[in-house]
């Protein structure tokens, strides 16, 4: 096997991992977002106002802290470690949603916000690192396929979760 073939296999495996982790992150996020207000109001008996305010705060905070997670990935932990840590924290948050949500809902949502902060900005940075030195066309193609992971995860969650 040539060195180029080995390098392409390694790049393909790295990209596949990033693709599927991103797909499932979006599946989890949009799955929660699509059901959260209904769950808060119908199952936990939050009033309409409290349910919508909780949803709004969750949604806003998920995006408000992304730049902090990007800075942590760039300056402190590195992109790979921050992405991995974010995925683990997200999994813990989603797992906590399944246990006694009356007692853990705000804690679980806070953990999901923290995991989202660490995760969301870093996979795209990893793509750039995996394809550095491979040419602009390969990088552009990788980002096109990467964004398909985002759309597929979103579509699947909106189809399956409700």
Summarize the structure.
The protein is mainly alpha-helical and 162 residues long. It has 7 helices and no strands.
Describe this structure in words.
The chain contains 7 helices and no strands. The protein has helices at residues 3-43, 48-64, 66-76, 79-97, 101-119, 122-130, 136-160. Helix 4 packs antiparallel against helix 6. The mean pLDDT is 90.
Feature tags:
7 helices, 162 residues, mainly alpha, single chain
How many strand elements?
0
For the sheet with most strands, the description reads:
none
Task: Determine the structural class based on helices, strands and strand pairing.
Answer: mainly alpha
Tell me the β content: under 5%
Shape: elongated
| Order of helical and strand elements | HHHHHHH
Radius of gyration: 18 Å
- Please give the count of helices: 7
Mean pLDDT: 90
Low-confidence stretches: none
List the helices and strands and how they pair.
Blueprint: H1 3-43, H2 48-64, H3 66-76, H4 79-97, H5 101-119, H6 122-130, H7 136-160
């Amino acid at each position: 096997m040539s060195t180029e073939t080995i390098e392409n296999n390694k790049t393909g495996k790295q990209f596949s991992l990033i693709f599927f982790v991103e797909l499932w992150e979006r599946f989890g996020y949009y799955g929660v977002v699509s059901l959260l207000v209904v769950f808060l109001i119908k199952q936990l008996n939050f009033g309409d106002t409290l349910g919508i305010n909780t949803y709004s705060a969750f949604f806003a905070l998920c995006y408000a802290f992304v730049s902090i997670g990007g800075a942590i990935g760039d300056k402190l932990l590195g992109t790979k470690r921050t992405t991995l840590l974010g995925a683990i924290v997200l999994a813990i948050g989603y797992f906590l949603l399944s246990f006694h949500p009356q007692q853990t809902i705000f804690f679980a949502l806070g953990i999901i916000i923290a995991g989202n902060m660490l995760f969301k900005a870093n996979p795209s940075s990893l793509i750039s690192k995996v394809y550095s030195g491979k040419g602009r066309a390969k990088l552009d193609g990788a980002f096109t396929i990467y964004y398909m992971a985002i759309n597929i995860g979103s579509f699947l969650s909106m189809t399956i979760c409700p």
